[in-house]
Amino acid sequence: MKPFFITTPIYYVNDKPHIGHAYTTIACDIIARYNKLIGNDVFFLTGTDEHGQKVEKAAIQSSLEPKDFVDKMSKNFKDLVPFLNCEINEFIRTTSDKHIKASQSLWKKLFDNKQIYLSNYEGWYSVRDEAFYTENELIKNNEDKFIAPSGANVEWVKEESYFFKLSNWQEKLLNFYYKYPNSIKPKSRYNEVIKFISSGLKDLSISRTTFNWGVPVPNNDKHVMYVWIDALCNYLTSIGYPNEESINFKKFWPGMHIVGKDILRFHAVYWPAFLMAADLQPPTRIFAHGWWTNSGKKISKSIGNIIDPYEIISEYGLDQIRFFLFREVPFGNDGDFSKEAISKRVNADLSNNLGNLVQRVCSFIKKNCNSIILNTSNYDEADNNLINLSIDIFDKYKFHMNEQKIDKSLKEIFELLTATNIYFDKQAPWDLKKINLDRMNTVLFVSIEIIRRSTILLYPIIPESCEKIFNIINIEKKNINYNNYNKIINK
Ligand code: ME8
């Protein structure tokens, strides 16, 4: 079994989770489930990012102590995971003791490796983005005031600060990415990162002194760590860091990070530099997905157009939303969330194509064959064509899934389902029933076999619906894997 480590970003607990958070978590679940079906040993991590000024501010606004506030808010994210039917291995919290120890160990390692020095920071900071900006990155708003490229407010900060020698890593990062061009996906994001690194890297301020809701810097308790150092370290904490000899660490590091495009720079520039500077390997892949808007507008609390995953799922159903999110928009691109688009997609693909096929084939078998179909192995050209198509599609499906092109994998499955619907209509078992029972039996057998194959392929995306189909067609859970995809199950 090949180890496979996959992570979501850890989400800030300043607010409730929305559809954007659910999107990344479901994406990882799909990729994790797929990897389990091909036989890999999977570790799937998610969790919450609980330190920093933004969270501290939110706690003050809600009149709670930061610790009480983060305990309450983190639970919202934790509860969402099973609601989305995501099978995780760990939910990490950055306020946990083990994480505080791990981030302090990482700091010490960087310090011992002479990658950290003390100086003064003077420049722009955005609390909403928890990011430092140079003046030429900023834009002006209508009132001629500087704002971050994300639209967030910025403030001028002047304080003593530790710095990470990021400038030392420009060359090494570029060399790494030239050698492993597939380690950032999609390609457009890779190009973006190369351009950013090539334009020159400045040393990075990595501690703050003007508030104290953070991990204390070892040997200088005037400072707390910059929230991104502590946050990124979560990926290591979960698999046993600082014990680099622990079973999970040896097995699972390095892993794959799925993130939104908003936080690509932190993951593809700062994080691999920290890792290399701490003598650790950079991630195997960083996949940056696009951004969901709501009816054309950016999803934001101030506009009041947040999509609550609980509400939308109770209206449409979980698998319907899991399916819509990954069929509607190529993974990596931006997408627009609208109720019309959900209804259209669900009706066309899930109800009319998949649902209709299962319903027609199964009810015919139940009515006419007492629910038992035996394999005659007496296939004609139409049968062989369909079986061969399912073999071709399996290869294409795996190719796309290995590249996280979930929408393309789904397209392949629905091509197979459409072909099966056409086959079933053309073969017309209702006519064969009157003239050739053997042939009718074969057609029903092949139809059920292709339903089984399509359902195995759909399983990572809509697991609950697939389990229902497996129940109907009498496939046990232990037989849901890709090893027996091409094996004909004989009864
Ligand atoms: O950035 N469309 O946390 P965060 C698609 N704590 N995805 C969206 C989205 C949208 N409209 N809105 C949010 C942080 N996301 C840091 C991460 S990791 C070491 C620290 C998803 O709560 C997307 O994955 O702001 C994005 O990157 C993430 O939520 C940001 O979550």
Task: State the main characteristics.
single chain; 491 residues; alpha/beta; 18 strands; elongated; binds ligand ME8
Record the SSE blueprint:
Elements: E1 3-7, E2 11-12, H1 19-37, E3 41-49, H2 53-61, H3 66-83, E4 90-93, H4 97-112, E5 116-126, E6 131-133, E7 139-140, E8 146-147, E9 155-164, H5 170-179, E10 184-185, H6 187-198, E11 204-205, E12 207-208, E13 224-225, H7 227-232, H8 234-237, H9 247-252, E14 256-260, H10 264-277, E15 285-289, E16 292-294, E17 297-298, H11 309-316, H12 318-328, E18 335-337, H13 339-369, H14 381-402, H15 406-427, H16 429-435, H17 437-458, H18 463-472
Parallel strand pairs: 1-3, 1-14, 2-3, 3-4, 10-15, 14-15, 16-18
Antiparallel strand pairs: 5-6, 5-9, 7-8, 9-11, 12-13, 16-17
Helix pairs in contact: 2-3, 5-6, 11-12, 12-13, 13-15, 13-17, 14-15, 14-17, 15-17, 16-17, 17-18
This protein binds ligand ME8.
Report on this model:
It is a single chain. By secondary structure, the protein is of the alpha/beta class. The protein is 50% helix and 15% strand. The protein has 18 helices and 18 strands. It has helices at residues 19-37, 53-61, 66-83, 97-112, 170-179, 187-198, 227-232, 234-237, 247-252, 264-277, 309-316, 318-328, 339-369, 381-402, 406-427, 429-435, 437-458, 463-472, and strands spanning 3-7, 11-12, 41-49, 90-93, 116-126, 131-133, 139-140, 146-147, 155-164, 184-185, 204-205, 207-208, 224-225, 256-260, 285-289, 292-294, 297-298, 335-337. Strands 1, 2, 3, 4, 10, 14 and 15 form a seven-stranded parallel β-sheet that branches. β2, α1 and β3 form a beta-alpha-beta unit. α14 packs parallel to α17 (437-458), α15 runs antiparallel to α17 and α16 (429-435) packs antiparallel against α17. The protein starts with a strand and ends in a 19-residue tail after the last helix. The chain binds ligand ME8. Ligand ME8 is lined by residues 9-12, 20-21, 23-24, 49, 231-232, 234, 259-260, 262-263, 291-292, 299.
